[in-house]
Amino acid sequence: MKFGSVDHPEAVDFTLPPTHPDTTALLRKQHKGQDLEVFVGCAKWNKQDLKGFYPRGTKDELTYYATQFNSIELNGTFYNSPDKQQVEIWKAKTPADFKFFPKVPQTISHYGRLLNVDEKMIAFCDAIALFEEKLGMSFLQLHDNFKLKDFERLASFVKKFAGSVPLAVEVRNAEWFANQDAREKLYKLLETEKVANVIVDTAGRRDMLHMRLTTPTAFVRYVGANHPTDKSRLDDWVERIQEWRDAGLQALYFFVHQNVEIESPLLSTYFIEALNKALGLQVRGPQHQLFT
Fold first, then answer.
1. Rounded to whole angstroms, how far apart are CA atoms 171 and 151?
2. What whole-number distance in Å separates Cα of residue 154 and Cα of residue 217?
3. Is residue 116 included in any domain, yes or no?
4. Measured in Å, how far apart are the chain's first and last C-alpha atoms?
5. How far apart are CA 116 and CA 112, in angstroms?
6. Are 127 and 82 contacting, i.e. CB atoms less than 8 angstroms apart?
7. Domain assignment of residue 168, given as a range
8. What pLDDT digit, counting tens, does each position of 215-237 carry?
9. Rounded CA gap, 148 and 200, in Å?
10. Domains in the chain: how many in total?
11. What is the tens place of the pLDDT at every residue in 95-121?
12. Which of 26, 62, 213, 266 qualifies as a FRET site for 248, CA 20 to 30 Å off?
């Protein structure tokens, strides 16, 4: 994942910004005392990207991956919208506690730009619905040039499909974060429609680290820099999740990317172990040394 990459990550201030006050207010409305649902994983299971992760002789990458982690950010659906048969095959290869988080296809988000895409979106929803209990949440990532002027198009799309599948939205254009009125308008839309507001932690786009939840679910896409700072950044996230859990957070969906993806399983494992220790959780992760 090259988005937001920088040549000198050591020069970046990786301090997490404070929790947005509206996030705190939203979480405090939630029922306290229930267990925090946590799903942590990588963006893909492709053997070429995760070279060294799979034991020699591994015949089915997804089947093995699903024994190590409890979820996958299904980036592959961005490039090819799955048909129903493919979804059923993927579902059958994974254990009962595993969940998929499929990305809305680029034919809808980028090429179609949310215009005249109902037929494609319905087909996507019908297919991923076959994940049944293994469907976590789909997410819509908008093109970097999808700007404030396109708000009504986004609003129409969200209102039409948020009731069909669990949905999260990631906006990328800097205008959304630089304009306070636009931010608040977007956050109000997502909160009203019960759509998660994706948080992106990447070196070159610290503005996307908005810390504004619009549901009691935190959907975080963490992009490491293949640098020693990656682990200390994850330590900071553990502290933040603990803060949010205490305030009323109900679910965490946390997916680890890397500019060079080979290290994603290592960082995911590090985060799972740190989170389990700090919060007293039992999130499933690899039980053996990776990359042996």
1. 11
2. 20
3. yes
4. 24
5. 7
6. yes
7. 9-279
8. 999 999 999 998 899 999 999 99
9. 19
10. 1
11. 999 999 999 999 999 999 999 999 999
12. 266
